[in-house]
Amino acid sequence: MRLDRFLCDMQLGTRSQVKESIRKGLVSVNGILARDPDMKLDEQKDIVSYMGRMITYQTLFYYMLHKPAGVVTATRDRRERTVMDLMNGACGKGLAPVGRLDKDTEGLLLITNDGELAHRLLAPGKHVEKTYYVECRGVLTVDKISILEKGVDIGDGERTLPARVRRISQSDSSYVMELTITEGRFHQVKRMVQAIGGSVTYLKRLSMGTLSLDTALPKGSYRPLTEIEISDLVQSPK
Ligand code: URA
Q: Of all protein residues, whose CA lies closest to atom 7 belonging to ligand 1?
């Protein structure tokens, strides 16, 4: 692999930026200052340093995206803007969103090319918790909370699995709650709210498994996961 490609793959800049870094003497290979961006290296064996920091080659990439409303959760779409259109500059071949949020839903979306992790987080039998902030029309009575918590018929023959509800506020005709579910059925949250006689007016995913939306991450932006976030996700029960 060429040195400039290695550095680009490791998110250290665009092709021209990494060439500039090499020219400025910021990069060394096996302890020797690198001068040639075309230099060939063995990404598994050679030790590359950038500004004195050792860079380990990786092929799996993990990002959190703060999905805004108005984009579809797909890798590609003929007509609509997709979440992947917001990932410009992210590196990693085969990046894809893990699970789906509706076009009008906002919040946490994990984007990765780690297919094994994606499969594990989405597998129905794994019951990975997803917590949503939900604004609704209607009245959330104690009885309705209990229905959501026990499991509710959303029209496809099988009740939802038990959920957790935290009521945040209630006004005359609207309420806000946090809802934690362990499945990923189509429009599940909206259908659960409908099943208790309300309707969702705003929906945002706050967390998935061990991963929580970074409150400092602006809507429409993404950032790489930290090492701790990655290891918590990867090590979470298999
Ligand atoms: N449930 C929904 O109804 N919509 C989403 O986008 C996610 C969960």
A: 101
CB 206 within 8 A of CB 133: yes
User: Which tokens go with 207?
Assistant: 């967390």
Q: Is 114 a catalytic residue?
A: no
CA 106 – CA 67 distance, rounded (Å) = 5
Of 170, 171, 189, 169, whose CA–CA distance to 179 is shortest? 189
Residue ID of nearest Cα to ligand 1 atom 3:
187
Q: In the chain, which ranges are E strands?
A: 27-29, 32-33, 48-50, 53-55, 62-67, 96-97, 106-112, 130-137, 164-170, 174-181, 199-208, 211-212, 222-224
pTM: 0.87
pLDDT in tens, 145-192: 999 999 999 998 899 999 999 999 999 999 999 999 999 999 999 999
